Amino acid sequence: MSKLYMMVTITNRNAKEKFKELYQENGHTVFFGTPGRGTASSATLDYFGLEATEKRVYFSVVTDSMWKKLKRALIIRMQIDIPGKGIVFTVPLSSIGGKKVLQYLCQDQEFEKEEETTLKGTEHELLVVIANQGCIDTVMDAARSANAGGGTVIHAKGTGVESAKKFLGVSLAAEKEIIFIVARTEEKNQIMKAIIEKTGLDSKEKAIVFSLPVTSAVGLRMREEDIED
Q: With DSSP H G I counted as helix, E B as strand and the rest as coil, what are the percentages for the chain, rounded to 5?
């Protein structure tokens, strides 16, 4: 049985190609990158002898065996455990919207499906929607039709999208919008279903979606029925 994780890589922009090469050489071919910026104080940077730099953030899906393989390569080859080299971490996935999407995101990784939810008893989930550029409104309309609240959007560029036709039966554009939506756990499935049905692979949005468990959350807007309870 295999577990699935969202792997997040944060590195200096001048090292992004080295990370991409390392991942691809180890059979990890599908990930989505977006620019970022570090917030370390000048005192911290001076302590480690570092300069403030622009960052690159990569999002991808890995199995537990792939993570162990990449983790070893990151330590040995990229010296990731030395300050200033970057950081890579994983978050367990709850579900992925469709078998084809699973095959696409995990291509060339050995995977044997286990039960869906990794963490039990969570009240909220983070839905991650990856769609073609310029399709934010239609994706959010689909999500709101299933009672979702608002979302947060970042622009990203996909790597490995040229293999999408093999796994998904469609061609994908490299430029992407990644939309983060926090939803109630009991409403997650209906929101994911609405996104897939209205803006999925058969539409111009070509949206794919997966979810991660949220262990705790504050600041979510309360609805009228919650206030009345």
A: 35, 30, 35
- Write out the two tokens for 62: 């890995």
Q: What is the pTM of this model?
A: 0.85
206 or 55, which is more confident? Answer: 206
142 and 202 Cβ atoms separated by less than 8 Å? no
Q: Is 183 helix (H, G, I), strand (E, B) or coil?
A: strand
Strands, E assignment, 50-104: 54-63, 87-92, 95-96
Compute the CA torsion angle 173, 132, 62, 74 (nearest 10 deg).
Answer: 70
Nearest to 101 by CA among 191, 227, 208, 16: 208
The whole-angstrom separation of Cα 147 and Cα 194 is 10
Indicate whether 102 and 206 sit together in one domain. yes
- Is residue 128 located within the same domain as residue 207? yes
* CA–CA separation, 38 and 60 (whole Å): 20
What is the CATH classification number for the domain harbouring 24? 3.30.70.120
In the beta sheet, which residues pair with residue 6? Answer: 61, 91
d(CA 62, CA 96): 12
| CA–CA separation, 70 and 108 (whole Å) | 14
Structural domains in the chain (count): 2
Is-contact 31 59, C-beta < 8 A? yes
Residue 195 lies in a domain: yes
The per-residue pLDDT for range 212-222, each reduced to its tens digit, is 999 877 766 54
Total Cβ atoms within 10 A of residue 138: 18
AA letter at 167: F
Domain holding 80, by residue range, is 4-92
